[in-house]
Structures are given as structure tokens and as C-alpha cells.
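can u pls check wat happens w/ potassium ion
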Amino acid sequence: MTPVYTVAQMRAWEDAAVATGGSYAALMENAGARAAADLFSRFETAQRLLVLCGKGNNGGDGLVLARHWAEAGWPAAVCLLLGENLSPLSAANLANLPPSVQQLPPERLPESDVVVDAVFGTGYSGELPAAVAALMRQINRQSGCNVALDMPSGINSDHGHIAADSFCAQITYAFQAFKPAHKLPEVQAYCGDIVCLDIA
Ligand SMILES: NC(=O)C1=CN([C@@H]2O[C@H](COP(=O)(O)OP(=O)(O)OC[C@H]3O[C@@H](n4cnc5c(N)ncnc54)[C@H](O)[C@@H]3O)[C@@H](O)[C@H]2O)[C@@H](O)CC1
Ligand SMILES: [K+]
């Protein structure tokens, strides 16, 4: 059975995976690559991807996903919603993006078939910054396929507080384990299908 891990338990699992020969970079690679692979299996033709990234490692997962999308020859764009001061692992994945991936400012986002929310994951708590909330409000009204990595941005992974204008997904990829919030019916309404991906 898929386990349910709090944020602290998830960090302990990651640390143990690294202590036994893994690396944080490999965990991030697996998260983004396996989310991309699941998405590829859902579509028969190329889809236009937009990845919204924050500054933390959730954004790094999104950058890995964008790289795999572009390497498959499908169009991909990324937007660094909270600036370019990224976590070291995310910065490495930004530097690794192929030139075909467009990097766009939030005020110039293209029409897309699939929008991936990689703004906040397990490191999030509180309320959404006003600019993020405004963008989520706009995206939640659009008709494309909305995908959240680990947790829809705006939702606290441990206790499930739902901030105003939280991202509303059709698919949420939970990494390695469900988080307590995934089990709450009011949060499930924001997650859509919750698919747990092994990232070891
Ligand atoms: N740690 C690891 O090795 C791995 C982490 N993974 C991914 O990393 C995520 C966790 O990454 P992080 O711990 O970097 O956290 P996040 O990427 O969820 O976000 C952390 C950032 O958001 C900021 N923040 C939090 N609440 C905020 C608020 N209300 N308003 C504005 N800023 C806010 C924090 O100050 C921090 O800069 C997971 O959900 C998962 O997607 C995966 O890549 C697998 C490996
Ligand atoms: K997210």
C-alpha cells in the first residue's frame, strides 16, 4: 500500500535514500522524468506545455519535466514566477534546459494545452503571494489540462490549509508517498486524479 508521509517524514525518506547511495539530484530527475512519462502515455499527439516554477525544488521537478518534454520534440515553455534566485538543484536544471524551451515572463504566457504547477510543493505554508494568486485565478478559469507536481500550490501538505486561489488540477503527481493533505476530501477537489510516482 502507498504510504502517507508528513513533510518531515518525506524529508527523512529523502535523506535516507541519499545516505544509502542515491542523490537529491537523482530524486529530482526521477520525479520530473516519471511525471513526463505518465503524461506522454495520456496523449497521442504533441501537446503545448507551460511549466510554472517557483524558487524551490518543486520548481526543479518542473524544469526536469520541461526538458523531457522538449527532448521528445513537444513544445515547452517555462516561467520562473518568483524570479531566478533558485535552489541549487533547480538552478542546475534551469542551466540544463535545451534551447528549444522558451523562458517567458508571467505577463506574456502563451496558450497551452498542459499547464504544470511547479510553484510550491511540500515546502509551502501560508497564503499565496498576490501575483501568484492572480495568475492561478486566471489559469483556473482556462480549459487546458492542469497538472500539479506533488501538491497544488496554495495547499499545505501536512494539514491541508487551502489558500485563496490555490491551483486547481485535473492530475496531481504525489512523489514517493501521499502527503496527509492528499487524503482530505476538500483537498482532493483541487488535486483531481492523484497518481503516486516512485522516485527512488
Ligand atoms: N528535497 C529533495 O531532494 C527532493 C524534493 N522534491 C521536490 O521538492 C519539493 C520540496 O521542495 P522545497 O523544500 O524546496 O520547497 P518548495 O519548492 O515547495 O518551496 C519552497 C520555497 O517556497 C517558499 N515559500 C513557502 N511558503 C511560501 C509562501 N506562502 N509565499 C511565498 N513563498 C513561500 C520558501 O521560502 C521556499 O523558498 C517537493 O514537494 C518535491 O516536489 C523532489 O525533487 C524530490 C527530491
Ligand atoms: K506544485
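The pocket of NAX (ligand 1) is lined by residues 14, 24, 27-28, 31, 54-61, 87, 120-127, 129, 149-150, 175, 199 (CB under 6 Å).
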